[in-house]
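Severity: low
Component: inverse-folding endpoint
Summary: output formatting inconsistent between runs
Steps to reproduce: submit the following structure tokens with default settings.
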């Protein structure tokens, strides 16, 4: 994964605006409406950014965006968690970021992993995996 910001086009480029809106918690469809493009165009822009950043998942892309300080539109009010996540939660976040086969590493079903990811998203106040990657990085969880 690239740690510099060379993978990110300028702040006014459509892919960068699409990523910023996804990080605020909007869906692909909502971003498409906001940018007056198709959902497929948004998905293609995200895929291009993922390829440029060396990210294999949207969570990794959110992490990269936080690392390079992507300027964002106003984030919706997110309640900061009172406590730092438990060590098991931090391990799961790290595994998700590493794109490991989390279900195999933890010896659980993929459905259990999805349930845990949703729980982590609730804990972080995230609406999507890209937002979870961004928030977890900005909060120093990763």
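Observed output (run 2 of 3):
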């Amino acid at each position: 994964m690239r740690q510099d910001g060379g993978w990110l086009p300028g702040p006014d480029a459509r892919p960068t605006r699409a990523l910023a809106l996804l990080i605020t918690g909007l869906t692909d469809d909502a971003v498409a409406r906001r940018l007056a493009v198709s959902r497929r165009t948004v998905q293609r822009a995200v895929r291009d950014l993922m390829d440029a950043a060396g990210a294999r998942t949207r969570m990794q892309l959110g992490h990269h965006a936080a690392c390079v300080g992507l300027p964002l539109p106003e984030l919706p009010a997110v309640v900061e968690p009172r406590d730092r996540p438990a060590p098991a939660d931090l391990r799961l976040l790290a595994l998700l970021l590493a794109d490991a086969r989390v279900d195999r590493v933890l010896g659980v079903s993929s459905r259990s992993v999805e349930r845990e990811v949703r729980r982590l998203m609730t804990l972080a106040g995230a609406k999507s995996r890209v937002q979870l990657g961004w928030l977890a990085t900005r909060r120093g969880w990763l």
